[in-house]
């Protein structure tokens, strides 16, 4: 899916956020169920023109 910047309408670029650990970021559907599958990896998308950043889950269908 293509994401566009709401400020300048340029195509957002998928990126990776890094922390001091090797953990991936994820979003979990609330309430969190132990061993549930209601989660997805979370990625920042950055506008290469103005720097605007939004976060999107990789698999939004898991939140239905």
Shape: flat
Care to count the β-strands?
A: 4
pLDDT under 50 segments (min length 5)?
A: none
Percent range for β-strand residues: 25-35%
- N- and C-termini, Cα separation: 18 Å
The secondary structure category is: mainly beta
Major sheet: size, sense and barrel closure? 4 strands, antiparallel
- Helix-strand string: EEEE
Q: Supply Rg.
A: 14 Å
Task: Give the overall average pLDDT.
Answer: 88
Query: Helix content range of the residues, please?
Result: under 10%
What's the gist of this structure?
The protein is mainly beta and 64 residues long. It contains no helices and four strands.
Tell me about this structure.
- With 64 residues, the protein is mainly beta.
- The protein has strands at residues 13-14, 26-28, 39-46, 53-57.
- Strands 1, 2, 3 and 4 form a 4-stranded antiparallel beta sheet that branches.
- Strand 3 (39-46) and strand 4 form a beta hairpin.
- The chain is flat and about 40 Å long.
- The two termini are 18 Å apart.
- The model has no long low-confidence stretch (mean pLDDT 88).
Task: Give me the secondary-structure topology.
Elements: E1 13-14, E2 26-28, E3 39-46, E4 53-57
Antiparallel strand pairs: 1-3, 2-3, 3-4
Quickly list its features:
mainly beta, four-stranded antiparallel sheet, 0% helix
């Amino acid at each position: 899916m293509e994401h566009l910047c709401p400020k300048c309408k340029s195509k957002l670029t998928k990126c990776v956020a890094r922390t001091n650990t090797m953990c991936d970021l994820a979003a979990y559907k609330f309430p969190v169920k132990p061993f549930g599958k209601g989660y997805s990896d979370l990625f920042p998308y950055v506008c290469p023109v103005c720097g605007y950043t939004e976060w999107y889950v990789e698999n939004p269908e898991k939140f239905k």
